[in-house]
Write a structure and sequence with these properties.
Elements (H helix, E strand, L loop, with lengths): L1 H14 L3 H18 L2 H4 L2 H9 L6 H18 L14 H11 L4 H49 L8 H52 L4 H8 L5 H24 L1
Helix pairs in contact: 2-7, 2-8, 4-8, 5-8, 5-9, 6-8, 7-8
Length: 257
């Protein structure tokens, strides 16, 4: 009985697997993408897929804490003292901004340089995402093309009624493959890349605002309140709780004296 059930399930699985349909749908989509995009654009795809599937490390509240710490050091020891922190900064965008501050670069030049980097980063993200969006729009079309090819072959063999059912099933499989590729794989990846891009851009905009505030010599508490606007309400509450926890020991010491 068990063997019979397994045989039945295997037959069903085989009914949903057709190499010809896969080659038409996947092969056609890949060929169209190769024509539409350059090699430099396509070589970013493997990295983008990995980036879309793994957990991102973008943390707005940690970035805020780092910027406030740098602002406090700059206010206490001067802007040149931030040079010692450059080796500890992992993010290239933040490191570049602090380096410009240490070099005594003009406020407007710092803004222009960092905004240019930000704009080009956003353009790269959009270009990479468009590959998946284009593929998602093409896959169902090639699925329909495969269906038409299968129907043409089926109609050519109408003299044998026993081939109509299997032929129709094979023809419709390409439409199924196209829909699965588009709505189960390609569109979700494009959406995930868009979400990750927005998160990263938000972090970079926070860094830009913090760097310019440090360069202007603003009070670290004012910088913190300004940068909190980039955070969600629950993140703002967490930042406020950490600040109160950091202030409480100092208050207790004063009272003890």
């Amino acid at each position: 009985m068990l063997a019979k059930a397994m045989t039945s399930e295997s037959a069903v699985a085989e009914g949903f697997f057709q190499w010809e349909s896969i080659m038409i749908t996947c092969g056609g989509t890949v060929c169209a993408i190769l024509i539409a995009y350059t090699f430099d654009e396509l070589k970013m795809i493997p990295r983008a897929v990995v980036k879309a599937l793994r957990r991102q490390d973008y943390s707005a509240d940690d970035t805020l804490d780092s910027l406030v710490r740098l602002a406090e050091k700059a206010r206490r020891e001067g802007l040149l003292a931030l040079e010692d922190d450059l080796v500890e900064i992992d993010d290239p965008f933040l490191r570049k901004g602090i380096q410009l501050v240490v070099d005594g670069t003009d406020h407007n030049m710092v803004r222009d340089a960092l905004e240019t980097d930000l704009n080009y980063m956003e353009a790269r993200h959009a270009r990479c995402r468009s590959v998946f969006e284009t593929a998602a729009s093409l896959a169902p079309a090639f699925g329909m093309i495969g269906t038409l090819i299968g129907l043409i072959q089926m109609l050519g063999r109408l003299d044998d009624p026993s081939t109509v059912g299997p032929g129709m099933a094979t023809a419709l499989l390409t439409t199924l493959y196209g829909a699965l590729m588009s709505y189960l794989i390609l569109t979700p990846i494009a959406r995930k890349l868009q979400i990750n891009s927005k998160k990263e851009i938000l972090i970079k905009e926070m860094m830009l605002e913090g760097i310019l505030s440090i360069l202007s010599g603003q009070n670290p508490r004012i910088i913190q309140e300004k940068l909190k606007s980039f955070l969600a309400p629950e993140q703002q509450e967490a930042v406020e709780a950490r600040r109160e926890a950091a202030d409480s020991p100092a208050i207790s010491t004063v009272r003890a004296r």
